[in-house]
Amino acid sequence: MISLPATRTALVLIDLQKGITGLPLAPTPGAAIVERSKELAVRFRNASAPVILVNVAFAPDFADAVHAVVDRSFSPPGGFAPDWAELVDGLAEPTDLRITKRQWGAFYGTDLDLQLRRRGITTIVFGGIATNLGVESTARAAHEHGYNVVLATDVMSTFTEEMQRFAYEEIFPRLGRVTTSEAIALDA
To answer: Residue 43 and residue 12: Cα distance in Å, rounded?
Structure first.
C-alpha cells in the first residue's frame, strides 16, 4: 500500500474521452479503464481530494494544434467524430476540475500547474489513455515541476502491450512510484 495525504494529493485522469476510449487498446480495453478510473475517482472525491479530468481538443480548423514536422502523425481512423473530445459519460462530477490540452502533455499551455499549486498539491496520481503518450508526457512534466508522481497502472492502457510494458518497466520507475489503484490509500 502507498498512503498519500488526501489534502495534498490529486488524481489526474488523461484523455478518457469518447474519441479515444473506443480505439483498439492493449493490454486493457478502454471501457475497463473507464470503469476502474470511475471507481478511483469516487475514492478521491470521498476523501475530498481533487479529481482533474484532462481531455485533448482542437479548434475546428486545427489552428491551435501542434504543427511540427514529424515522421508519423496521429489521427483516428476515419477522422475526428463531432463528440471526439467529450469526456465519457458518467465520469465527471461537478466538483471535478477540467483541463483541455492541445498536445500530448497537460502542463504546457494549460493552467494545470496553477490549479494544483493553489490547492497545495504535492503528489499526483495518474491514469488514462494512452499510457506512453498523454499519461507519460504529463507525468514527465509533473516530475520536472517537482511533484511526487504515482502511476496507477491498472487505470492506463495504450496501443500495444509492448508500449505498455516499456512505459511501466523502463520509464515510470524513473518518474515516480508504480502501483495499482487498489494499493493507493488516502489519509485524512
So the answer is: 13
| pTM tops 0.85 | yes
132 CB-contact burial (10 Å; exposed 0-12 / middle 13-18 / buried 19+): buried
Distance CA 49, CA 125 (A): 11
Q: Find out whether 14 and 128 touch, Cβ atoms under 8 Å.
A: yes
pLDDT tens, position by position, for the chain (188 residues)? Answer: 999 999 999 999 999 999 999 999 999 999 999 999 999 999 999 999 999 999 999 888 878 888 899 898 876 556 678 898 999 999 999 999 999 999 999 999 999 999 999 999 999 999 999 999 999 999 999 999 999 999 999 999 999 999 999 999 999 999 999 999 999 999 98
C-alpha span between 119 and 116 (Å, rounded): 5
Contacts of 43 (CB under 8 A, 6+ apart): 184, 186
